[in-house]
């Protein structure tokens, strides 16, 4: 099963699909984004990959529906059918393993030692949460359709009264921009990566009583990777190290995650090993004219993943079985999700922001509106997670293999939406191939 999981992620990391769009195709994209793209010499079209720094901005900002449709179709068709076959094999093997151990299904086997204890309790949790947020999603959906009609009227496209998956991200962020008067292109100018990183490290050092010291010439696998030493402020004792690998490159893991390089447990001589943590993200690269500029969503992602790193480094248990990420898996996201709240506190936002050209602070009105936006689109966000967690549960509780149909059924049941024809986003949903099998609901514990 481990080999299947590794191959699933390797397939995604090695995907090198390229798409070609003209300037007209990318109407709505700012000049900074376009200037960072390479162009095809023969056609003069812009070359875009399926990596996050290319894909996410286009789905948020491009006004051309056909561009978003073709891009979303390609993105959610990655590694089909090879990863679908891998997932089917994983579901079958997990089901066989559970049966051999006397469990009715893999979900029951996995959840017995978790906080939830059983699939029945997880299902009850889903249903209760759904009833609480469905009305909010209905209201949000109506507002999204209003915005889509305005968008179509403004740019001359036919309005069909539907929210397609290639519309979702654009409408989601248009709602935030309109309700809270936030210009996302302007906002990210106040979040250059180096400023965000410096401010975030100050917050964590003060919060946890730690000192981070950057290595001048670390031994790393890429020149872009940085490494830090972590010491306890009071005692001066060395606690461990963390590595930051923040930009996309060919063959690299394409999502965001934090991994353990070495646990901080006691060794055979009862000396504490120095812990090592690795934080992986895929943020926009600096260009010759601009630094790496983060959206606020990306700031939250960085803060979240670094929370995992601190969970790993600060753990004090004596055996690896009880350390950091070895907590009950439906609790493992809770510390990082709670720490994300610092990204909506004015003082911490001031520490992590500064205009990349002028050095000016984030204006008070933008700061105020950004803090207020914390609960924006709560219905959409929660129901999306319920949809994905339901697919995970049904897959591992019922032993079902028709993965594309399972996702389509759940998306329609909870959100009234349809996946794009010909896509299967589960083929790129790496959580199901890794450690979140029958446990993806972990992300919903802190809702």
Structural description of this entry:
A 5-stranded mixed sheet has the order 4-5-6-8-7, with helices on one face. The mean pLDDT is 94. By secondary structure, it is of the alpha+beta class. The chain is globular, with a radius of gyration of 22 Å. The relative contact order is 0.15. The longest helix has 37 residues, at 119-155. The protein has helices spanning 2-13, 31-35, 52-61, 65-75, 82-100, 106-111, 119-155, 165-180, 184-187, 193-208, 296-314, 334-339, 346-351, 364-372, 378-398, 403-415; strands at residues 19-21, 38-39, 46-48, 210-214, 226-232, 238-245, 257-262, 275-280. β5 (226-232) and β6 (238-245) form a beta hairpin. 47% of the residues lie in helices and 9% in strands. The protein has 16 helices and 8 strands.
In order across it, which strands form the biggest sheet? 4-5-6-8-7
The poorly predicted ranges are none
Rg calc: 22 Å
User: Please, what is the average pLDDT?
Assistant: 94
Shape, principal axes of CA atoms: globular
- How much beta, percentage-wise? 5-15%
Helix/strand/pairing category: alpha+beta
Topology order in helix (H) and strand (E) letters: HEHEEHHHHHHHHEEEEEHHHHHH
Terminal residue distance:
31 Å
Please report the number of helical segments: 16
Largest sheet: 5 strands, mixed
Tags for this model:
alpha+beta; 47% helix; globular; five-stranded mixed β-sheet; three-stranded antiparallel β-sheet; 447 residues
């Amino acid at each position: 099963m481990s080999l299947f999981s590794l191959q699933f992620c390797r397939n995604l990391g090695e995907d090198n699909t390229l798409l070609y769009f003209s300037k007209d195709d990318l109407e709505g994209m700012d000049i900074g984004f376009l200037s960072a793209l390479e162009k095809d010499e023969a056609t003069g079209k812009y070359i875009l990959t399926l990596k996050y720094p290319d894909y996410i901005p286009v789905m948020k900002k491009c006004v051309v529906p056909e561009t978003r449709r073709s891009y979303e179709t390609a993105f959610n068709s990655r590694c089909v059918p090879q990863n679908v076959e891998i997932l089917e094999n994983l579901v079958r093997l997990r089901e066989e393993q559970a049966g051999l151990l006397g469990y009715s299904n893999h979900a029951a086997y996995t959840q017995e030692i978790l906080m939830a204890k059983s699939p029945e309790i997880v299902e009850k949790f889903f249903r209760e949460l759904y009833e609480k947020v469905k009305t909010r999603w209905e209201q949000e959906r109506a507002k999204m359709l209003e915005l889509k009609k305005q968008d179509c009227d403004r740019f001359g496209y036919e309005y069909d009264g539907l929210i397609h998956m290639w519309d979702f991200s654009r409408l989601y962020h248009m709602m935030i921009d309109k309700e809270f008067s936030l210009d996302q292109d302007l906002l990210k100018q106040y979040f250059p990566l180096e400023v965000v990183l410096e401010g975030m490290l100050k917050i964590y050092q003060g919060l946890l009583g730690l000192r981070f010291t950057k290595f001048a010439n670390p031994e790393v696998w890429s020149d872009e990777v940085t490494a830090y030493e972590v010491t306890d402020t009071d005692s001066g004792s060395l606690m461990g190290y963390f590595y930051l690998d923040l930009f996309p490159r060919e063959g690299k893991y394409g999502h965001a995650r934090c991994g353990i390089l070495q646990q901080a447990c006691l060794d055979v001589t009862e000396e504490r090993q120095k812990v090592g943590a690795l934080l992986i993200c895929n943020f926009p690269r600096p260009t010759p004219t601009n630094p790496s500029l983060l959206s606020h969503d990306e700031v939250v992602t960085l803060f979240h993943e670094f929370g995992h790193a601190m969970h790993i480094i600060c753990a004090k248990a004596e055996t690896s079985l009880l350390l950091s990420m070895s907590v009950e898996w439906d609790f493992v996201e809770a510390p990082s999700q709670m720490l994300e709240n610092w990204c909506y506190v004015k003082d911490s936002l001031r520490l992590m922001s500064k205009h990349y050209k002028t050095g000016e602070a984030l204006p008070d009105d933008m700061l105020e509106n950004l803090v207020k936006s914390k609960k924006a689109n709560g219905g959409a966000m929660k129901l999306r997670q319920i949809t994905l967690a339901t697919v995970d549960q049904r897959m591992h509780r019922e032993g079902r293999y028709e993965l594309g149909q399972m996702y389509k059924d759940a998306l329609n049941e909870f959100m009234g939406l349809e996946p794009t024809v010909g896509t299967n986003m589960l083929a790129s949903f790496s959580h199901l191939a890794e450690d979140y099998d029958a446990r993806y609901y972990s992300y919903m514990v802190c809702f």
